Amino acid sequence: MIQRVFVIICLFPLNQAALPLVINTWNFENAANAAWSALQKGGSVLDAVERGCSQCELEQCDGSVGFGGSPDERGETTLDAMIMNGDTMEVGAVADLRRVKNAVGVARAVMEHTEHTFIVGESVVKKQQLCSVPDQSVNESISLFCIFILQNVFPDPSKSCGPYKPKAKLWKPKNPNGNFDPSSHDTIGMIAIGKNGQVAAATSTNGATHKIPGRVGDSPVAGAGAYADSTAGGAAATGDGDIMMRFLPSFLAVDFMRNGAQPTVACKTAISRIKKYYPNFFGAIICANTTGGYGAACNKRPGFSQFPFMVVNPQTNQSQLQKVDCF
Ligand SMILES: *[C@@H]1O[C@H](CO)[C@@H](O)[C@H](O)[C@H]1NC(C)=O
Ligand SMILES: *[C@@H]1O[C@H](CO)[C@@H](O)[C@H](O)[C@H]1NC(C)=O
Ligand SMILES: *[C@@H]1O[C@H](CO)[C@@H](O)[C@H](O)[C@H]1NC(C)=O
């Protein structure tokens, strides 16, 4: 009993709603910090989630993999990513992306510089050949660079279906074999809520989990991997994507919040929906509403009883690792 009271006292101040807010799946602290720093510098919530997920792409987000020494990808490592603007309900998504590191940057370029929502595989590579380079000097300018590339091909993408060629040779990969670590399996999902309640969400993953070539998981699918709606909130999911994507848990959670559910309840209800059919599925979800309230939930199974996530808001004023008990 004493222990329980102590926990409540400790957690309460951390769970206060405050804006702006950045929240992301897993203990990806640098991603949270990168997103927060984008907001502090006056960036939009879209900038924040893009920067945050890019940081994870850079680090492989397993804490141990740097750029040096990764094996040749031989075209077998693919990335999936998506980004969603909760003000306009625009989505940019990419899947089966090869030879590109900054997948979320390309997803954003798809959202902002094409009329499309979801582009997969070879077509993305061809269309953005120069953008899709293995890159070890990725930094903040890379996605701007990608956008620049999209606008610098001929024939004009708005008038012709291609094939596209670059107008000028702008970029040369330093290492044509890439620097990707296929053993990294993590997915990041991130939500940012702006000072005025604007919502953005993004995900990025490398789909290297012994998959059949061509398999796409939940991460790049709007409503499954993440969802953002500035009139309701945002959510992002992680886990067994093949199962989770059948339930659109991120859409579901946001819709529960629209109907008045607190973020924690919305997250739990979305997980419960899946649990009903797949009691042993591996998965978790984070939820945030437009006033900065947030929560998370996960499905309890052997070896997975707590789900870590990162939170930054003016109350914490630095990225803070939080954990939710699975149920
Ligand atoms: C980021 O990229 C730009 C353009 O390639 C370059 O000028 C800048 O020095 C890079 N910054 C870092 C920190 O690598
Ligand atoms: C958002 O969530 C917080 C914390 O659960 C809650 O206090 C607040 O009323 C919610 N805001 C809205 C708009 O529902
Ligand atoms: C948050 O932290 C930054 C730098 O660490 C500091 O400048 C700022 O005053 C802090 N804000 C609050 C509200 O504590």
Q: Can you describe what's shown?
A:
Cleaves the GlcNAc-Asn bond which joins oligosaccharides to the peptide of asparagine-linked glycoproteins. Its EC number is 3.5.1.26. It catalyses: N(4)-(beta-N-acetyl-D-glucosaminyl)-L-asparagine + H2O = N-acetyl-beta-D-glucosaminylamine + L-aspartate + H(+). One of its GO terms (cellular component) is lysosome. It is an enzyme of class 3 (hydrolase). By secondary structure, the chain is of the alpha+beta class. The protein has a single domain, classed as (Glycosyl)asparaginase (Glutamine Phosphoribosylpyrophosphate, subunit 1, domain 1, 4-Layer Sandwich), CATH 3.60.20.30. It has 9 helices and 14 strands. Helix 4 links the parallel strand 3 and strand 4. Helix 2 packs antiparallel against helix 3, helix 4 crosses helix 6 and helix 8 packs across helix 9. The longest helix has 15 residues. The chain is globular. About 18% of the residues have low confidence. The protein binds 2-acetamido-2-deoxy-beta-D-glucopyranose (3 copies).
Offer a few descriptive terms.
327 residues, alpha+beta, Glutamine Phosphoribosylpyrophosphate, subunit 1, domain 1, 28% helix, globular, binds 2-acetamido-2-deoxy-beta-D-glucopyranose, Peptidase_T2, signal, N(4)-(Beta-N-acetylglucosaminyl)-L-asparaginase
